[in-house]
Amino acid sequence: MFLLEEPSMKTLLDGLLPRLFPSLVFQCVPHEGKQDLAKSVPRKLRAWREPGVRFVVLRDNDGGDCHALKRRLTDLCREGRRPDTLVRIACQELEAWYLGEPDALADAYGNDNLRGIRGRARYRNPDAIVKPSAEVRRLIPQFQKTNGARRLAQHLSLQRNHSPSFQALIQGIHNLSRDTPQQQTPPT
């Protein structure tokens, strides 16, 4: 069960996770922003009664202190009586994950010029870009969050993506899935 900050995260994960984890059974529950997610986490975690379900909470950092944010979300999970919940932060925004894989951007938008950003210094650590969504819109003027998430879900990969927060999410899901009988193969 994924508790997500916004609908575009659901769109991305609904397309990406079946490719990376074909046997994983999951459900994504998007929220309408940070405050809605924060109010919902303890309540949903306490109310969910299905045995064996594991939870993942995913939220953008949006320029905040990611360690403090992760502590706050982890505290909300404890309040919801689910301290085993995986908490992951997209640094700074979901779009940093897209910038972390220029080949995926190029393939998704049919623009080979996007492959060239890989060597530029400003893109070496996509999680350090202050406003990745603005940067993606600068590179791809027609970019829209939901459509972009749908397109990129078909192309992102763990091996080529150099966003540390993307890698942390995928590795965390892999670790959780090893503990459940539904998943037998590692991500590709």
Word description of this protein:
46% of the residues lie in helices and 9% in strands. By secondary structure, it is of the alpha/beta class. It has 2 domains: 2-93 and 163-178, Rossmann fold; 95-153, no CATH class. Helix 1 (7-20) runs parallel beside helix 7 (145-153) and helix 2 (34-47) packs parallel to helix 3 (66-79). Residues 182-188 have low confidence and may be disordered.
Task: Give a brief description.
With 188 residues, this protein is α/β, with parallel strands linked by helices. It is globular and about 50 Å long.
- The poorly predicted ranges are 182-188
Distance between termini? 21 Å
Q: How many beta-strand runs?
A: 4
Strand order across the largest sheet: 2-1-3-4
Instruction: Tell me the major beta sheet.
Output: 4 strands, parallel
Tally of helical runs: 8
CATH first level of the largest domain: which class? Alpha Beta
Number of domains: 2
Structural class category: alpha/beta
- The Cα radius of gyration reads 16 Å
Percent range of helical residues? 40-55%
Named at the architecture level, the CATH assignment of the largest domain is 3-Layer(aba) Sandwich
Quaternary structure classification: single chain
Strand-and-helix sequence, N→C? EHEHEHEHHHHH
Query: Could you say which overall geometry the principal axes of the C-alpha atoms support?
Result: globular
Layout of strands and helices, then pairs:
Blueprint: E1 2-4, H1 7-20, E2 28-30, H2 34-47, E3 56-60, H3 66-79, E4 86-90, H4 95-99, H5 102-109, H6 132-139, H7 145-153, H8 164-178
Parallel strand pairs: 1-2, 1-3, 3-4
